[in-house]
Write a structure and sequence with these properties.
Elements (H helix, E strand, L loop, with lengths): L2 H10 L4 E2 L5 H6 L13 H4 L1 H13 L4 E3 L7 H6 L6 H18 L6 E6 L11 H18 L3 E7 L2 H12 L5 E5 L1 E3 L5 E3 L5 H8 L7 E7 L3 H11 L4 E6 L2 E3 L2 E3 L6 H13 L4 E4 L5 H10 L1
Parallel strand pairs: 1-12, 2-3, 3-4, 4-5, 5-8, 8-9, 9-12
Antiparallel strand pairs: 6-7, 10-11
């Protein structure tokens, strides 16, 4: 039984799993400069020691899954940033640095997840066939680099989500799906680019998705999302919310929720059935330490 299978057995038995906090905003907080139109995706090559240390810090606080700093390294994002030639390097090193952190922390059971998103920082959204091909290439690089699983992040519309899911599954790795939601004018929870959360969950049912995450969603909206999940999703669920103020694509940390307050919210999410808990943009090492305290 490999480390992924052992972790899923624990989830099946009702255990709760701590994952890491934000990586992109955390390397930004520590001084890593952004790439134009590719956010904080360049750190694996420009500042590998900083990125590795972020992973180490999360593992030190008990994170059992660390996600590679590859949210902004999909091919179309790197094209917009004029660094498409670094596509394989950035995705490979993103996974390798997380593995190196695991080794340096002597934590062999920690899973390294390859993070995949199709978010665009320029509203240059890829067409389905381009999205499929680029996702297959990205997932293949991550699998060859030694990722234990793939985590789709900020799936914000149903059609693109399904394209990315199928392409990522072609790697042979297990694929978890992360949905990012907001309230529509009626109060219903919808994906950020449209389509109800309920319809998205229905679309995922029967597609061999082991776990769904509600992620990069406002802390105050997580409970309503989990209400929908309880009604529509038969499998396990995780949560990693965000809490940040933005100036363009730059994270401003002055309004980020305090760690103890975030942990208090997380207790209610656990009562609603969440089994995997972590943090997204704005939430750092102190937040993961606080979550460990309630697990």
């Amino acid at each position: 039984m490999n480390r992924y299978e052992r972790l899923m057995k624990r989830i099946d038995e009702g255990e709760r799993i701590l994952i890491d906090g934000a990586t992109g905003t955390e390397v930004e907080r520590r001084g890593v400069p952004q790439l134009d139109n590719a956010w904080n995706g360049g750190g694996a090559l420009s500042h590998p020691d900083v990125l590795r240390t972020v992973h180490e810090d999360y593992i030190r606080e008990g994170a059992e899954i660390v996600i590679s700093n590859t949210f902004a390294t999909h091919r179309h994002v790197l094209v917009d940033a004029r660094v498409e030639d670094r596509f394989e390097q950035l995705n490979r090193r993103g996974v390798e640095l997380a593995k190196e952190a695991r080794d340096r922390m002597a934590a062999p059971d920690v899973l390294v997840s390859g993070g995949i998103s199709y978010w665009s920082f320029t509203d240059n959204w890829p067409e389905p066939e381009s999205l499929r091909g680029s996702t297959e290439a990205q997932a293949t690089v991550m699998a060859e680099a030694g990722a234990d699983l793939l985590m789709l992040e900020m799936m914000v519309d149903i059609d693109s989500m399904l394209v990315v899911l199928e392409a990522a599954q072609a790697s042979g790795l297990p694929v978890w799906v992360g949905l990012s939601c907001e309230r529509d004018p009626s109060g219903a929870m919808t994906l950020l680019r449209g389509g109800s959360l309920a319809d998205a969950l229905d679309a995922l049912t029967g597609r061999e998705v082991p776990l769904v995450n509600i992620m990069h969603t406002e802390v105050e909206d997580i409970g309503a999302c989990l209400d929908v999940v309880q009604e529509r999703w038969p499998g396990p669920v995780g949560v990693y919310a965000h809490s940040a103020r933005w100036n363009g694509h730059v994270c401003i940390f002055d309004s980020t929720i305090q760690p103890d307050a975030y942990a208090n919210h997380a207790q209610s999410w656990l009562r609603q059935g969440a089994q995997v808990i972590g943090g997204c943009c704005g939430l750092g090492v102190d937040h993961i330490k606080a979550l460990r305290g309630i697990l």
